């Protein structure tokens, strides 16, 4: 397999002085070709800038966030490199990987699968938290260590929170829009975790933000969470952000700053409305 750090530029568009690029590379973790988006702000030296990783939700590719959220203006203003990977391996031809929109392609759930059918390719947790960091270091920060934060939407909000909570000291900050906050207690999570991790619910807890908040032993942290109150998936109990607050009440190291937004739904219209506040939040932590 080709070195994952060898990346090919697929497209490049100037946007707010910087460039919105799309790259392709061979992933060792996922055993397939993957695309990811990288916004590189205009700066004296882009090689010393901090990095923010965005994780998208169900059905998304590396395109949704870059095309719909309007984040580039704020990435340029704060001079932050933004990396937005795809949401699952692609083209692996595993039986059943493209029949459902909430499992398989477009729905990797940011876990490392243990069920034999999925275990070879569905390793999004390691792809995001290990391989992608090496790719960023070799290509965007001149081989040097860099400051990095993480955020995401829905399934990607879950991915961002578990990545932060499982890796104390790796990420400077974390935030989420309408995250799947307690996957072991909602239909999406139960379905995906059964498929990727098997039926032992004890194993699922390692990928559940509420369980991880209770166990978290890292530096004091605030998690910024935005939630639209007209979000259909909130009404269907797929998201359960209030469970984050309950979980945090037993652990003074974590504070949940939950912002309930009247009238907003689950879409990128909601995300684009509040994305500026998330950049302000992360910029503060990345530049400390
Ligand atoms: N396909 C689903 C909706 C899936 C969905 O809302 N996905 C969210 C993340 S959980 C998303 O970001 N969709 C892509 C988009 O809005 O661009 C349905 O028809 O109900």
TrEMBL record:
Keyword Chloroplast appears in the UniProt entry: no
Any one annotated GO CC term: cytosol
Top EC class of this enzyme: hydrolase
Domain of life: Eukaryota
Major subcellular location class: cytoplasm
InterPro entries xrefs: AB_hydrolase_fold, Esterase-like, S-formylglutathione_hydrol
One Pfam assignment: Esterase
UniProt EC number: 3.1.2.12
Record-annotated membrane-spanning stretches: none
Keywords: Cytoplasm, Hydrolase, Serine esterase
Residues of the active site: 154 (charge relay system), 231 (charge relay system), 266 (charge relay system)
Transmembrane among keywords: no
Catalytic activity: S-formylglutathione + H2O = formate + glutathione + H(+)
GO biological process: formaldehyde catabolic process
Subcellular location, record wording: Cytoplasm
GO MF term set: carboxylic ester hydrolase activity; S-formylglutathione hydrolase activity
Function summary: Serine hydrolase involved in the detoxification of formaldehyde.
Family: Belongs to the esterase D family.
NCBIfam families: fghA_ester_D (TIGR02821)
Protein name: S-formylglutathione hydrolase
Lineage: Eukaryota, Metazoa, Spiralia, Gnathifera, Rotifera
